[in-house]
Amino acid sequence: MANFSKSNVPQFSVDVYQNEYLPEGGREVNAIVTVTATGGGTIGSAVTAPHLYPPGHGPSAAVAIMVDCSGSMDYPPTKMRNARDATAAAIDTLRDGVHFAVIGGTHVAKEVYPGGGRLAVADPTTREQAKQALRKLSAGGGTAIGTWLRLADRLLSAADVAIRHGILLTDGRNEHESPEDLKAALESCAGRFTCDARGVGTDWEVKEVTGIASALLGSADIVADPAGLAADFTRMMETAMGKEVADVALRLWTPVGTTIKFVKQVAPTVEDLTDRRTEAGPRAGDYPTGSWGDESRDYHVCVEVPAANIGQEMLAARVSLVIPQSSDGTARNLGAQGLVRAVWTDDMAASTSINPQVAHYTGQAELAQVIQQGLDLRKSGDIDGATAKLGRAVQLASASGNADTAKLLAKVVDVVDAATGTVRLKAKVAEADEMTLETRSTKTVRVKK
């Protein structure tokens, strides 16, 4: 891991929102932890003029772009052309000094540029050479995404940089390797680089693409019309160029007798981090959050504390932000901390009120869950079950003001009454609409202030 200078590390802050009051015998403590990174000093330049950045003045970064070149990319022929154009647009968005490579993915992974197991360093010459190399990309062969990821990992790990990131595009199912092979590849790449995944068209598997993004702490989305790829790739690369510090972990310390029930990211998307904990000393554990630029995210922490008597109070958890393995091999504390408290009271009004942030994000997590359940039931032919789950989704989206998800739901169900969740399944649903709803089901809206 490269050293970070103060000039390119944002300042982190932690805010905790909770109702700390518990009734006698109460044991469950819920808190929303808002983490904000500001003032890294690079994101504006990176996004508005990425390659005007003087080399060495932005955060050091390496990016691998993995482009599906399987036979299905020729149907229609515009798909491969759009993928080439999108990759060229992403290359144009690279900041000078960023290391990069382009990988062509079929049932094997091939280095398209620069080749020889190396990464190129972005400047006007290498960007032009890379775009020339893209013209040779043609469609043919199968799909084995694990091999693409392993090659990206080998290339990215050779660079002594702060940020390692992948962009992966596929148009089909991962038919030429077993699910176990892909899972093993994701496990070996997790924590080594982050990766955004995109499915183009409608012949790919949503759970494969979202699973890749989830495992590698990136974003997932559908680009139903290949003509939209260039704009999407540009946005993805702009975001990647705005990242300023990698491998940030949410560290939770809890006192003796306290159990962590779950840790979830709840904004901008729902991502359960509970099982990704790594131990970090006595009663402390780290939960990975990936790379950060100037941005804010929300996390839901739920802990179970020992029962106590009225009038007692305790620290239920301490939240901090660290880079678990900095350049000298020790954890680096990023200087932000928040406290989760528990206070036992006989005031029923205090102990039974639910914090608005906790209530909101509990609803957003349920929204993501019932959409997935509803779509799975619809695919299995359980019309009544699907109607009930998607009706509940409509109700939750309406109540929380999640207008984007409400619009996507309205393409799958006819909404009779949003407030009560009364809906009818549409007889015919465009495949792209159903896949878009499933892919974006974990996107949340923040609490209205």
Summarize the structure.
With 449 residues, the protein is α+β, with helices and mostly antiparallel strands. It is 32% helix and 30% strand. It starts with 10 loop residues before the first strand and ends in a 10-residue tail after the last helix.
Please describe the topology of this protein.
Layout: E1 11-18, E2 21-22, E3 28-38, H1 43-48, E4 61-68, H2 78-92, E5 99-105, E6 109-113, E7 120-121, H3 124-134, H4 145-157, E8 163-170, H5 179-189, E9 194-200, H6 206-215, E10 220-223, H7 229-241, E11 245-253, E12 259-267, E13 271-272, E14 278-279, E15 284-292, E16 295-304, E17 313-323, E18 332-344, H8 348-352, H9 356-380, H10 383-400, H11 403-409, E19 413-417, E20 422-425, H12 431-439
Parallel strand pairs: 2-18, 4-5, 4-8, 8-9, 9-10
Antiparallel strand pairs: 1-3, 3-16, 5-6, 5-7, 11-15, 11-17, 12-13, 12-16, 14-15, 17-18, 19-20
Average pLDDT over all residues: 93
Distance between the ends: 38 Å
Number of strands: 20
Report Rg: 23 Å
* Weakly predicted, low-confidence segments: 1-7, 41-56
Shape: globular
Percent strand equals: 25-35%
Largest sheet: 7 strands, mixed
* Number of helices, counting only DSSP H or I runs of 4 residues or more: 12
Helix content: 25-40%
- How would you classify the helix and strand content by structural class? alpha+beta
